[in-house]
Amino acid sequence: MPRFWFDFEDGGPPTIDEDGMDFATAEVAAEEAVAALASLAKDIIPRAGPHKDIAVNMRDEAAQDVFRATISFSSFHR
Amino acid sequence: MPPFEHPGTSTSPQADASPLLRRLRATLHLTEREIDAVLALPVQAAEIERHVDIVREGDRPTRSFALLEGFACTFKFTGDGRRQIIAVHVPGDIPDLQSLHLTTMDVSVGTLSPCKVGFIQHDALRVLCEQHPRITGALWRETLIAAAISREWVLNLGQRQAPSRMAHLICEMIVRLWVVGLAADLRCEFPVNQGELADAIGVSPVHVNRVTQDLRAQNLFEWKGRHLRVLNWARLVQVADFDPTYLHVPADFLPGDGNVVYPGAFGRGA
Q1: pLDDT at B8
Q2: B24: closest CA among B184, B187, B134, B174?
Q3: Do B205 and A43 count as a contact with CB atoms less than 8 A apart?
Q4: What pLDDT sits at residue B270?
Q5: Are B214 and A8 within 8 A, CB to CB?
């Protein structure tokens, strides 16, 4: 099975995936990346302040960036 | 006589070799008659490969099993195929003891690693319980502790953030394995893959991967394959928000050298 690496960005220095994970296809890996981003968002956004951008970047075995997902949060009081 | 006996201080090699007996004796000083009765239970031993269901939701078994070696888990699926692992089982557990009284299984139990199990017919268990009420009490207590663990899992899944959920699961496994002599020096075998961890702590596998790397980078543990070694127990306990009260283990059975402060019930929620 091909391996993919998932780096996360949440405003600070990106957290680089050292280990990677195997998935059957890039499509399946990308779905899992999105699920992880949403899962991370649940923990991060409530304590993030008024604005937060988070992202996951997926690399393949050739070290190519093959998928990116972002969540952009902003809020303001009326 | 001490009310509790540390695993390994028994009177015979046979008694020491029975994880079930070790488990019961951790909380109850059994008489020779009671020890003999447990050892005399007709047990059908079986070896089961990893990732095999031992008993399934909907089954109506006429026997229960004790986990003798290896790891198993209790789990359920949603209608659309999403799995939740509800409990992890270590040697000494009787994961489906409830089936003695609840005829239909409302959960499934399967292996996480290759396992050795011992099947015990319900009829034999009933006779044991009728003849030895203190053993009945000890078995009842086991089911109560399983329920207490489930309640902590509800808190873990409902309210803790992913890093704490993961740290909490590790702390729980270390304590439970420590009690049955399988986590000396805070090292143990914990044969779960990331998909299983994900199903146990209710986050996606890639998130599990991220959290594991983060916790490792904080030098809280080393984890290679199934070999887990906790490096900083006190700090891991803090990150996990871990209070072992729910495991109902005697205080002198807990890891740590007396320096570890477990967050007590007093002050929580304040």
Answers
A1: 43
A2: B134
A3: no
A4: 41
A5: no
Kindly state the tokens that stand for B192: 């779960």
pLDDT for B3: 31
| Interface contact B209-A35, CB threshold 8 A | no
| Model confidence pLDDT, tens digit, residues A23-36 | 999 999 999 999 99
Q: What is the pLDDT of residue B10?
A: 44
- Residue of A3, A39, A54, A68 to mutate for B, most B C-beta atoms under 10 A: A39
Look up residue B143 and give its two tokens. 């089911």
Q: What is the pTM for the complete model shown?
A: 0.91
B160 in contact with chain A, both atoms CB, cutoff 8 A: no
Cβ atoms of residues B170 and B239 within 8 Å = no
The DSSP code sequence of B6-27 is -TT--SSHHHHH-HHHHHHHHH
Distance from CA of B12 to the nearest CA of A (A): 46
- For chain A, say whether B209 makes contact (Cβ under 8 Å): yes
Angle in degrees, CA B37, B20, B77, rounded to 5 = 130
Contacts of A38 in chain B (CB under 8 A): 204
**pLDDT at B16 (0 to 100):** 52
Side by side, the strands of the sheet bearing B115-121 are: B44-48, B115-121, B63-69
**Whole-number pLDDT of residue B203:** 95
Pair B236, B221: CB distance under 8 Å: yes
Residues (pLDDT < 50) of chain B are 1-11, 265-267, 269-270
